Amino acid sequence: MNDCLFDLHIGYVRFRNPIALAPMAGIVDGAFANQYAGDAGLVVLGAFNLDEGSIEVASKLVARGRKEFISDEPMELIKKEIRAVNSGSVVAVNVRSTTLEPLIEAAKIVKEEGAILELNAHCKQPEMLEAGIGEALLRDLPRLSAWIKAIKETGVVLSVKVRANVINDIELARLIDKAGADIIHVDAMLEGFGADLDAIVNYRDATRLFLIGNNSVTDFATAKDMFSRGADMVSVARGAMENPELISQLVESVTSYQKSIGWYNAPKHVCSEGDFRALAFCCLPVKPCPVHEKFKKLGYTAEEFARTKMEFARGTMLEYGEDTCFGSLVWCCKITKPCWIRDGVLNTLDLSDAEYMKLKEQLAKYILDHARIPVNESR
């Protein structure tokens, strides 16, 4: 497999593909990761309990039948489990603590091991909420922000695991972004309905941080649903237990898709409620269309938006295409949308679908880089 196919990197870590194993308390350790997720780009171990308060809560949960990782030496356990992963996947460690100091200590260890620390703001058991850990952090945003800032002072690559639809997701994403985290790992749970794909779009349009989508990923079709809403990576939890080949299947499918299309998580079109990145596919803004509302949120006027796209196109293959609707490929749509005019131009230019979409991905970044209003402040 070509490890350079996906350009996915944060700080000192580089992911070989956008498929992850999500943490499951008392279940996902190094041995589990090696067995079920040997091909994954990322494996998230844990959750591990770091201090007396979190260990006490975990013990109560074990007493009523829940699995948990409990150790008298949690830091040594973390180090041992990171080193047990022998698949070549990047390792993250999901942790809980009622106090900050153990999180700082864990962050230093995790960084030394070349791994990622993931702060658990996700678990929702009543005992955890009462102790102020897990999802309770979402209802104490000043503490969450302060903890993120303090942990990041160690230099560790930091992920924050959250649950969607608990508080305002846009405000939460922006707080995590501005506090300095590197990754948001969002369980887009919609009670009784599987994954809330709209929540993924909300997070994508609120931050440019690396975004991991989680919940109800059972095949490549459900993974693509999350990718097209803006997830940079998708994670699998119990689905891997139900189908031990699931992660390998997802890696194979997304690899094939990336080779053929060039932009595995290309967004839906703006007129189909796509995220900000979809502005790369929009027509010249000369008629009433959702594109106007979208680019205005980034501070663009119609003229500035058009000029920005043309500035990028100049000197690239997107500059060509005088026979297309607006005289340039820069205004053309996603390759998966049939268009014989666009495809004719690509054929004439000897530009493959993947090369075309890679240029569109670069264009999307250019539009966001030059916005007057940053994504994490957009209206």
Automatic annotation (TrEMBL):
Gene3D superfamilies: Aldolase class I
Domain of life of the organism encoding this protein: Archaea
Signal peptide span: none
CDD domains tied to this protein: arch_FMN
Transmembrane segments: none
Start and end residues of each DUS-like FMN-binding domain: 87-255
Stored InterPro entries: Aldolase_TIM, DUS-like_FMN-bd, Methan_mark_9, MJ0144_FMN
Protein name: DUS-like FMN-binding domain-containing protein
Native organism: Methanosarcina acetivorans (strain ATCC 35395 / DSM 2834 / JCM 12185 / C2A)
Upper classification of the organism: Archaea, Methanobacteriati, Methanobacteriota, Stenosarchaea group, Methanomicrobia
